[in-house]
Each structure stands twice: as C-alpha cells, then as structure tokens.
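// run 5 | inverse folding | seed 20
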C-alpha cells in the first residue's frame, strides 16, 4: 500500500567508496498509523544488497512543542502533511500560571510513602472532567538535581527526574485530585536547591485570548503552517495551550513566556 522510489536508481562505487541515495515514499492504500513492510535491493554484476524497509504512514507530522513571548504576538506552527484536503484546527487555552518559588534541602524521597519535609514540597491540583491536558513544569539551576512526582488519589502516575528543568504532561487526564511532589536530590552549592513550579490544567474550550484559522489546506508530502496569535496576556504569568489538527491525533503544546 506504499509506493517507493529510489533516487538515483543506480550507483557506481569504487572499492571503499560511499554514496548517498534518497528513498521517497508515497502512501496509496496503506492504513494510517499501521506499519507497512517491504524491501529494496541493489543488484550489481556479482552482488545483491537487500534492505528491509518499514514505514508508518501518518496523517501529518507536527512539532509537539512551540513557544512564544510577549503580551501580544504570534508564532507559526509548521508541519508536513501526509494527505490531500483540509484539516480543521482547534485550540484549548491559553491559561495562566504564576511561579511558585521553592527552596529545598537535598534529601531522600520515598515514592511508596511520600511526605513533606525540608527536602520535599507538595501541591494539590484538581482536574475537572473533560480537561484536555495537565502540564507541570519545574525550572531550576542546571547544576541542581530536583525531581517531580505526580500522584492521583495516592497512586504514582508519572515522574520526571534529572538535573535542570523538568516537565510532566498528561493528555486527556483522568479527573480527580492530583498531588505534585517536588523533591530535592542534589544541590550544586551543597546547601539548598532553588526552583520555580508552574501548573496548568487545560479546559476543553478555547479562550478569547487566542486566534487561529478554522482550517488549513493540505497537500500530501508538502509543508504547511498554522499561524497562532495571542493578545492581552498578563506579563507576570506564563501561559499554556494546545492546538489540535482534526482527527489526526496530532497536537502542539504552546507555552508563552
């Protein structure tokens, strides 16, 4: 269900030489989202090289994250289409979050029995039915090690561990009461870690601070873009939203600083 063309169709190689070639795929009847298998062969006077090929056709390819800045502005969301036609564009947000400053002492965090103390802070987040996304972001020094842990009704559902900034995102999250634990692991100054926590819950509906086209034309294999604009944002907050593209299942999360 996928046509495959090779450019160039022949190569001349001396012993030890390397040449590049391009393979162009064109979906015909293959099912979107399902891997299609095949192979291509290079045949010489005395050798044959057979290369397995697996491709998964997609309705489109889009960047998962985009960012912008300013109280008023715009950003171009760029992608490549796998289909001809048009796609409806939908948005949720933008919603604000103001930073919560944290200063913690390094210590040990028990995932099975979390508790707050000098090395750990806890925050509650209520997610209503129909929410599009839950995003938690922790910004800190690149040399510090601070972890994020997300619980829902007492059960650990996600963690983000490492140095520097951490991000947790839950798409179409189950409604309920969530708890965010921020735990300090290593401080570069051997005393305390400092960081800022942001939390967003995206509602299903679009807000009046966001503008974008209702639909965009698509041509298979060609790039396209969606111009996303915003206005009258509070400069003391960071803003978060998402853009969805028809029934493709693709989305772009947008953060405005």
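// decoded
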């Amino acid at each position: 269900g996928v046509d495959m063309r090779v450019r160039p169709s022949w190569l001349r190689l001396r012993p030890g030489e390397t040449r590049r070639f391009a393979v162009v795929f064109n979906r015909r009847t293959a099912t979107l989202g399902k891997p299609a298998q095949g192979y291509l062969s290079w045949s010489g006077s005395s050798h044959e090289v057979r290369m397995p090929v697996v491709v998964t056709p997609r309705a489109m390819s889009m960047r998962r994250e985009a960012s912008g800045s300013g109280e008023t502005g715009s950003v171009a969301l760029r992608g490549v289409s796998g289909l001809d036609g048009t796609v409806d564009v939908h948005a949720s947000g933008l919603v604000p979050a103001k930073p919560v400053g944290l200063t913690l002492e390094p210590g040990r965090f028990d995932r099975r029995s979390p508790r707050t103390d000098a090395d750990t802070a806890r925050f509650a987040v209520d997610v209503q039915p129909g929410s599009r996304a839950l995003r938690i972001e922790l910004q800190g020094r690149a040399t510090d090690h601070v972890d994020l842990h997300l619980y829902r009704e007492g059960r650990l559902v996600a963690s983000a561990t490492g140095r520097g900034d951490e991000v947790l995102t839950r798409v179409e999250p189950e409604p309920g009461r969530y708890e965010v634990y921020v735990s300090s692991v290593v401080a570069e100054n051997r005393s305390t870690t400092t960081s800022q926590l942001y939390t967003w819950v995206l509602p299903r509906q679009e807000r009046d601070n966001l503008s974008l086209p209702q639909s965009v034309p698509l041509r298979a294999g060609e790039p396209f873009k969606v111009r996303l604009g915003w206005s009258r944002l509070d400069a003391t907050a960071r803003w978060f939203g998402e853009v969805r593209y028809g029934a493709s299942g693709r989305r772009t999360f947008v953060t405005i600083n």
